Every structure is written in C-alpha cells, then in structure tokens.
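Q: what does this look like with zinc ion bound?
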Amino acid sequence: MPERSAFLSLPPTTQTITRSEIWLDDGSIVLEVDKVQFRVHRSVLSNHSSVFKGMFTLPSQPPDETMVEGCCVVRLDDQSRDWEALLRYIYYGPQYFRSRYDYPIEVLIASLRLGRKYEFEEFFSRAMGYLKYLFPYTYAFGEPGIDVGWVKNNIFDLVNIAEELGEMELLPVFYYWCLHHHHTLSIFGGWNRSDNTICHLSAESQYTLAIGKEKLVTAIFDKTWAWLASLRDVSPDECLSRNQCSEVRARHLEEALLIFRQSSLLLIPLLHKDKLSQGFCTYCRQYLGGTTLKREEVWKELPSYFGLPEWVYDYRRG
Ligand SMILES: [Zn+2]
C-alpha cells in the first residue's frame, strides 16, 4: 500500500496545470496527476479505495500543503488518462461511455492499474472478472462474445497491463488472440490505436510470441490435421470407396493449406470431427473415429508454448 508520504513527496510542478472536466464544485480534495487536476470528494474516494481511506483518516496535514479553492492538493505519480477514465466511471457510471461494451478499454486498464495500486477493490475485481468472461480460458470456447475488431484493437494493451501487473494467468489466452489477429509485423512494429498512438508490446512479449507462434503452428498441424495423413494407412482393400475418400481427403488438405496460408492460427474451424469425417466411407470414418483431433491437447498445452506455467484453471470446464 502506498504511504501518505508517497502521495505528497512529489514536488509541485512548474509546468502549466490544466483542469479536468471532472471538477466538482462541492469537491473536497484536488488530485493532481501528470499536470492535470481533478476536484473530487474525499468520501467518494474513501468509499472505494482502502488506500485513500487510510490516507484521509491520518490526523494532520503538512503545513506546507498546497491548497486550491480551499481543497488540499494530492499529487499522484500516475498517468492522467487513467484517472480521467476511472473518475468518469466512478462519477458517471458505465452509461456515460455510450459503448456497447460494459467497459471501454481505457476504463478496463485504469480499473486494473489504479485498482491494484490504490486498492479500489471492487473496480479491480470487476475488471478482472470481465476479462475472464470476455476471454474464456476453457478449451470448449467458441467465438468470443465480443466484437472481433475490439479484440484486435485492444489485445496488445491487455497483454501489456497483464504483464505489468503480473497477472500471468491471463496471458496464454491473450497471447493466443494476439497471434490469431496480428501478423508478426504488428507484433514487432506495434499497433495503431484508434487515437493514432501506437501500442508496442514489450520485448519479452515479442520474443515469446515469435517462439510461441512456431510452436503453436506445429502443434495445431500435428495434433489436428495429421489425422488426415493417417488415412494413408488404410488398406485399399478395406476402404469402401477409394476415389471418393481420396477426394474428400484432398479437399480437407487443401482447406488446411489455405488456413495456414493466411497464418490464422484458428483452432475454431478445426472443431467438428463429425463434420470433418463427412463424405468418407463408413470404414474410413470408423478409422478416423479411433484417432482424435487432439484439439483439446493443443489448448491444454497452450501456456507451455509461451513458456508460461500450466493453467491454474480447469481449462476443460472453466
Ligand atoms: Zn474410405
């Protein structure tokens, strides 16, 4: 928990201070973050954050404390955009954002970063819960219940915050979606956010993704597509419709090639064994029944491709 002295040890800035729109006339405290001031309420901060609660119950204030409009100024060593997002969320609620999602990305990030630092417990756990809901870690996951564009645009920021906070259990799924949506060029060169800033991954994540991609491609190929190759072992005398089975097999292989051509590491279209075995003769279908697609195995091993510890969850059920 940051001490009171940690808040107040920052010297007054000599640069121009701007005033945020979050300037409540009856506010009782001014937060100064990164040259931006916010006038808010001690009681509101105390209700949500154990750290502020502890800070405001300290008996006295230093005599040299800066005052603005009768309010003490508390200087914080954070980014103003995080405070802007969190305070808007606290004061105006999710409807303020008019987003189809409960959490705009900036609120998610602020809830995690400031939630952890200042013990805004409810905000932190709600943000974590939401991420786990958005990005199921279960093997039986389907299409995520979110806009793919949202995932593509924000996944690097989510990787960075998970890394920053040491929430490593989120990383296997985040890394998977990085590889699903982004080419190596973006992984190394960064991704343009909608506000025209560029989000870069850490060198460690870049390295992990480069190595992990190779391992994942190999595993997907070996464990989910190699069964088609295994049909070579079916004796010509046993196959009931050699021409038809060869044709179906060739079609599947062609499809596999196209998927790998796009370098989409999709586990999703490789799901349905029943669908894949359609068109084969009953003998070949039975033969394939003895093999497994092992998609679940790929998912089980996913953290290991990224050098991460095994799932802490039951990845089969969630
Ligand atoms: Zn056959």
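The chain has a mean pLDDT of 83. The first strand starts at residue 18 and ends at 23.
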